[in-house]
Specification:
globular; Quinone Oxidoreductase, Chain A, domain 1; 17 strands; 10 helices; Alcohol dehydrogenase; Rossmann fold; 6-stranded parallel beta sheet; about 20% strand; 7-stranded mixed beta sheet; about 375 residues; alpha/beta
């Protein structure tokens, strides 16, 4: 690769957040070249996750660094690589991942975790690992902070190579963007974390994109009963298309949700998944699982300082609770095969994209998510 290609800066458009709740500003920014073990990517598609929404609204103190480029669910093409990067080259089709994998640390070498000692998801991180600096700046030279190892609301972004996954160039990039977060998180929680067995019963609390990805994962492994719980009645039709067998709207029942679940499945479900980021919902999910062997998997982001709504003695009844990060997928080593499974139709992606808009309409896409009208709005750059 020509060195001039590596060293030049790029001026491009990005959606910049200047403060919590303020409309994102589409403006020209400067993107520096990738440094050692970094990659610069041309983003072709990106979408908006509830984590982006929560960060934009300022719900989590750890995410209040401004100005900032949000976004973490995307796909694109490698534009250039920095010194030392050998597994990626210009032109490669890639997806960014917020939970990186260096492949060398004690964590990456362990089969018991998908966390990396250096590049795991970290909401406090807003600069690059190499030098503690930003690779984005305004046209007058002021730094613009990074977000979740990715910052995909930009025509070009710079990531640590540990956070870039090369995929089959035949894979449709407009669908592969979903593997950056929601699909991998939800399906992986079923396949890797819970290891849901065929014929078992599942309850999913919160039917956003991650919750519906849990439904899809449960359908794909042959769960016999998949119960969806959500206060939005519109989620019933969407869930049924993906694989729901039953639906409970907590606003329309006169008893606790866990009791209603046990009306559907005697004793409770084998597996429950909490995808709402609400501790009261988490308790209902826990109580919905079957006495003796039920497993509850936590997927929702919980910014509240409240602690787990459980008494230690309740765990002696045999129920278990565990959290899942990025569906327990090791991103760089396992996601390429998962992408192939999606291409082969094992996991269906089309139902998850409810809207498509040009990148300049990103504030409209945020509003669709706020109003509960969109599942995933795919933005074209």
């Amino acid at each position: 690769m020509e060195s001039s290609k590596i060293v030049r800066k790029i001026t491009c458009k990005a959606a910049v957040a200047y403060g919590p709740g303020e409309s994102l500003v589409i403006e020209e920014i400067v993107v520096d070249p990738p440094q050692k073990m970094e990659v610069r990517i041309k983003i072709l598609f990106t979408s908006i996750c509830h984590t982006d929404l929560g960060a934009w609204q300022g719900r989590n103190e750890a995410q209040k660094a401004y100005p900032r480029i949000l976004g973490h669910e995307a796909s694109g093409v490698v534009e250039s690589v920095g010194e030392g990067v050998t597994d990626l080259k210009a032109g490669d089709h890639v997806i960014p991942i917020f939970n990186g994998e260096c492949g060398h640390c004690v964590y990456c070498k362990s089969e018991n975790t998908n966390l990396c000692g250096k590049f795991r998801v970290n909401p406090f991180k807003s600069v690059m690992v190499n030098d503690g600096k930003c690779r984005f700046s305004t046209k007058d030279g002021k730094p613009i902070f990074h977000f979740l190892n990715t910052s995909t609301f930009s025509e070009y972004t710079v990531l640590d190579s540990a956070c870039v996954v090369k995929i089959d160039p035949k894979a449709p990039l407009n669908r592969m963007a979903l593997l950056s977060c929601c699909i991998s998180t939800g399906v992986g929680a079923v396949w890797n974390t819970a290891k849901v067995k065929p014929g078992s019963s599942v309850a999913v609390f919160g039917l956003g994109a991650v919750g519906l990805a849990v439904v899809e994962g449960a359908r794909a492994v042959g769960a016999s009963k998949i119960i969806g719980i959500d206060v939005n009645p519109d989620k019933l039709a969407k869930g049924q298309k993906i694989g729901l067998t039953d639906f409970i709207n907590p606003k329309l029942i006169d008893k606790p949700v866990h009791e209603k679940v046990k009306d559907v499945i005697e004793g409770g479900v084998d597996y429950s998944f909490e995808c709402a980021g609400n501790l009261d919902v988490l308790r209902e999910a826990f109580l919905s699982s079957h006495d003796g062997w039920g497993l509850t998997v936590v997927l929702g982001v919980h910014p509240s300082p409240r602690l787990l709504p459980l008494h230690p003695m309740e765990l002696f009844d045999g129920r278990k609770i565990v959290a899942s990060t990025f569906g327990d997928f090791k991103g760089k080593s396992q996601l390429p095969d998962f992408a192939k499974q999606c291409m082969d139709g094992v996991v269906k992606l089309d139902e998850f994209i409810s809207h498509e808009l040009p990148f300049e309409k990103i504030n409209d896409a945020f509003q669709l998510l706020i109003e509960g009208k969109s599942l995933r709005c795919l933005l074209h750059l």
